[in-house]
Design goal:
alpha/beta, ATP binding, MacB-like_ATP-bd, ABC transporter related protein, globular, 10 strands
């Protein structure tokens, strides 16, 4: 299988007022095309830090992240921003939807940021919302829908740019167990249907049955 993203010896140190916290301690990891993987660990184990670095939302103190063999952090900031917008989708524990916008407009947002014409962005956003079962909620605002529907909208927003990789950080952390399972089932279905690579950070061991591969992280080290 083709390796899409490869982490090499990632170290992340946070420094504040003379104190040091080592969040990652030489992490190595490979994501292959079409893989549906979990990154499991307790709170504070380094899951979020690793996902943020893999998606270039943060920079490592040491080490490299390669995308199809290309060193991402050697790119100019403008190229890095394009990579984040076009190649990677993000889903977070908190959906971060904008209450003043409809679900359709929330999902359109990454396309508009990427320079798509508004009409084309609307068509693509509607298609992906229908794909996640929200075609009947296009004109609703986030405060008018359920928690599960908010998170499905967040998944749609992550997928609307047709990224190769989706990184999800505790995407079911605020959901009840039944809704959480339905959201993960949706992501697994989309993974199989679209071939999108998923890496989901979670502490929920019940989700292991969905995964092709499970990485365990503890105290900043992949076990």
């Amino acid at each position: 299988m083709e390796v899409i993203i490869k982490a090499e010896n990632l170290v992340k140190v946070y420094r504040s007022e003379g104190d040091e916290v080592v969040a990652l301690k030489g992490v190595n990891l490979e994501l292959t095309a079409g893989e549906f993987s979990l990154l499991m660990g307790a709170s504070g184990s380094g899951k979020s830090t690793l996902l943020h670095i893999l998606g270039t939302l943060d920079r490592p103190t040491e080490g490299r992240v390669l995308y199809r063999g290309r060193d991402l952090f050697a790119l100019p900031e403008g190229e890095l921003a394009k990579f984040r917008n076009r190649k990677v989708g993000f889903v977070f524990q908190f959906h971060y939807l904008i209450n003043e916008l409809t679900l359709l407009e929330n999902v359109m947002a990454p396309l508009l940021v990427g320079g798509f014409p508004r009409d084309e962005a609307a068509v693509r956003a509607e298609e992906v919302l229908k794909r996640v079962g929200l075609g009947h909620r296009l004109s609703h605002r986030p405060f008018e829908v359920s928690g599960g529907e908010k998170q499905r909208t967040a998944v749609a927003r992550a997928l609307v740019t047709e990224p190769e990789v989706v990184l999800a950080d505790e995407p079911t952390g605020n959901l009840d167990s039944q809704t959480a399972r339905s959201v993960v089932e949706l992501m697994r279905e989309l993974n199989r249907e679209l071939g999108t690579t998923f890496l989901i950070a979670t502490h929920n061991s019940e989700l292991e049955s969905f995964a092709d591969k499970v990485y365990f992280i503890k105290d900043g080290v992949i076990l």
